[in-house]
């Protein structure tokens, strides 16, 4: 048995592939374009492992998709492939339209052609799982109820708009063509192998390097934090048991303001890797101009996933963030390889030299 994973060299996809190869004996065909955020170092532990087949390629390449589907005959496709950084979508939305919308369309069409020709039993067992984000729902006030699967889509950034469009395509291919799909919408992930443009790894690495810790605006933007390994376990559960055509929100039940997250990281670093000068890491915090259209609050209501499929996160924020900080302290080679010159140029541009 085989599954096809797209975007499996990225942060969430890479963790999913690593965990899958531990928890399952099924082969994983891993298709990734290896853009700036795709990193084969994440998968170095699977080198020479016959259970993992890596293919460099684009979900927009219809001929390649058809070839892979015909050759490996997967029983499922799990789609992580996406451009995913809001700041980058503001500076250059075109890549987000191309990958998240056009790419998803091409993937759906290739999978539909493959699925249509399967024999009856395999056709009935096949699944297409689309991994999406809570950002498609827009923003919440401080008193609003968390996002449920029934919330209206109100995306506010080029990134979230492109993901919303991809969700709609997946839904339409189920209702129009009968393609057996399930969709997951997750909250903010954190954990090992996270590309350091995102808040938590950026803060950890900048703190250790003695650089400023850039905080947008007043730092009171609230996010629901989900440990990436918990997210991966939720995806496995939905793939195995999710109802066709349904959407499942995946959250960590950990709403925290960005500033509080940064303070928690600083406190852990004070404990695990104290500054040589005896000062506290919080002294490195620097406030920078807020980004355009910055959503104020996200929160996920994950009760449907728990009630229907019996899933809930294993990690609290306190346990997950400790594991994350320790992983970055222990992973010097991975960090050195991922923080290339192009990454440093990006952070200088984004944070005005304060990162």
Description of the structure:
This protein has 355 residues and is of the alpha/beta class. It has a domain at 2-189 and 227-251 and 294-313: 3-Layer(aba) Sandwich (Rossmann fold), CATH 3.40.50.720. It contains 13 helices and 12 strands. The strands form 3 sheets. The chain has a 7-stranded parallel sheet, sandwiched between helices. Helix 6 links the parallel strand 5 (127-133) and strand 6. The protein is globular, with a radius of gyration of 20 Å. The chain starts with a strand and ends with a helix.
Briefly, what CATH class of the domain at 2-189 and 227-251 and 294-313? Answer: Alpha Beta
Fraction of residues in β-strands: 15-25%
Task: Return the CATH architecture of the domain at 2-189 and 227-251 and 294-313.
Answer: 3-Layer(aba) Sandwich
Helix content: 40-55%
The outline comes out as globular
**SSE run:** EHEEHEHHHEHEEHEEHEEHEHHHH
Structural class: alpha/beta
Q: Count the beta strands.
A: 12
